[in-house]
Structure formats: C-alpha cells, structure tokens
Amino acid sequence: MARILTITLNPALDLNAELPGLEPGRVNRTSATRLEPAGKGINAGRVLARLGHQVTVSGLLGEANAAPFERLFADEALSDSFVRVPGQNRINIKIAEHGGRVTDVNGPGFSAPADALSRLEFRLAPLLADQDVVLIAGSLPADLPASAVARLVTLVRRAGKPVWLDASAEALDAGLSAGPDAVKPNLDELSVWAGTALTTLDQVAEAAGRMRAGGVDQVIVSLGADGVLWFGPEGCYRSTPPPVTVVSTVCAGDSLLAGLLHGQLKTDAAATARARLAFATALSAECVQHAGVADPAAPDFTTLLDHTRVQPWPDDNNNGEMPL
C-alpha cells in the first residue's frame, strides 16, 4: 500500500457526548460519552491506516496533554512525527443529539511559538522523499498565520509530491495560492470562499470551476446528507449516500477524504473517479452511524457501498437549480 503523510496544525481532544435531545439551561444526561484525540489529519490518517496504508502523522502538538495522542498513535499504527510545543491541545465538546444535530463547543488550545513553523518544516523535509502523497488538514492554532499553510503546500510541491488540502477561511485562501492538487471544502466553506451563500448545485459548480481554474486538479464539495459533488480531470460526478440513521456527523468529512485518497492511490481498474467517489461516500455514510472515524471493516459496509449512487453531473435527472 501507499505511504501517506498527514499534517495537523491544531489537534484536539474531542469530548463526544450523545443524548436524546439537548435542553439548554437544564441538566442533560448523556447516553454515551467518549474522549478521543482528534484533528482532521489525525482522523483521516486513522482511516487510511485501517485501509492498509503506512501513515505518518505530523504537525504541532501541545506537550502538556500529548499522552492521549501518543497512545492513539501507538494503538492505530500511526508513525508519530509531531513537533511538540508548549501548552495544551484544545478540548472540543461535540454534542450529538439522536436526531442527527451536532453542536460544537471548541476550546482555544495552545498558541504557536514563533519558531513553530520553521521547526515543523525542518522535521518534514527529510520525510517528504518517502511519501506518496501529503494531506494538510484542519484549523490553525493561535499566533500561526494563514500564510503557514501556503508555506507547507509549497514545501511539499518542491519535493515533487502531490498535496491535498482540507482547510477553511484564510487558511484555504492561503493554501490555494500555493497550488494544491486537491481541495475538499464543505458547502459552508466553499460559500465563504466564494463570498456568497451557494444555494443551488449550479452555484456550487461555478465556484468549484473557479477553484479549478486556479490550478487545482480536484475539488471535492461535501454537501452533508445531499452527498458529494466531485470535479476533476475525468469530469464531474455527484454521489448520493444510502439512507442511514445518523448518530454523529463528526469525522464524516475526514472519512470521506480518506476514502478518496485511498482510491486515488489504487492502480487497478476500480480506481475510476466514479468508483473512488462511491467508496468514499459509503465510508462517510458508515461513519455517521456511530461516534468516531469510519470503519472500512464494518459488517454493513458492502451493503452501504451497493446502495451508494454516483452519476455524471449534470444529467437529465440532476437539476442544477435544485435548492440545497
């Protein structure tokens, strides 16, 4: 399998709480609670390792509460190349109601020291030669400018390696300026980038087209329950996930991205854009049925894949003016 490096600049300990319904101002009892190390690159790396890839995780990690991350990396066979910095990784609270609504309460986390980026670049430089692809994903810690993302994308490109980006707001703008190979905004993130609310598929396609015109090979737009729009050199496809009972949408986008990267790295006949998108969408659908990242070995995964639909977009059955 492939060698993959993921970069997470602002990891978190996610406190996932499940309950029937949140009643603000009242005492709420959870049906399940779990505290888990997280961060977009870490989440995607876990799924990729479960798919058989050799995954190295890197980025910045607060040394004050690094131990849970170190245990996770060991348990999930992730090679740890994080740069430790002073301070505590943020603690995020994810409240998942049984109807599928998720409320996020995100903590501030550590402030990146002035030398953090240069230390990380020094750590990454010797690793890049051995990687097949690099994923930069997630938010920025305090005091780390958005230009850091552009520097990291440029570092990877100069090493001659493909780089995928999952970022938002200023970090997305900065990363795009350096020319990543693929980006994965969700609908809200793409709307912010476009400067206006995107309410139809045609509007999403127009914004994604502008991203691709800037040199991005693939644009993957996640639409939540409405599926995914994928734009790339093989055309445009829309996937529709199978109906599932949603427990938590946390990690669904990271699992989707891991599935697409997995498909991208395959060399057999099943590696078409359509097959890659179907696999990734089914993986995301598996993820939302429980807390945590997707499980490719789940007993119902084959059924989910069989019931995932992928069609060229637009076609006679896809109305681009349909509201999202």
UniProtKB/TrEMBL annotation:
Transmembrane residue ranges: none
InterPro entries given in the database record: 1-PFruKinase, PfkB_dom, Ribokinase-like, Tagatose/fructose_Pkinase
First and last residue of the signal peptide: none
Domain of life: Bacteria
Domain Carbohydrate kinase PfkB: 14-296
GO molecular function, a single term: 1-phosphofructokinase activity
Keyword field: ATP-binding, Kinase, Nucleotide-binding, Transferase
SUPFAM superfamilies from the UniProt entry: Ribokinase-like
Family classification: Belongs to the carbohydrate kinase PfkB family.
Name by which UniProt lists this protein: Phosphofructokinase
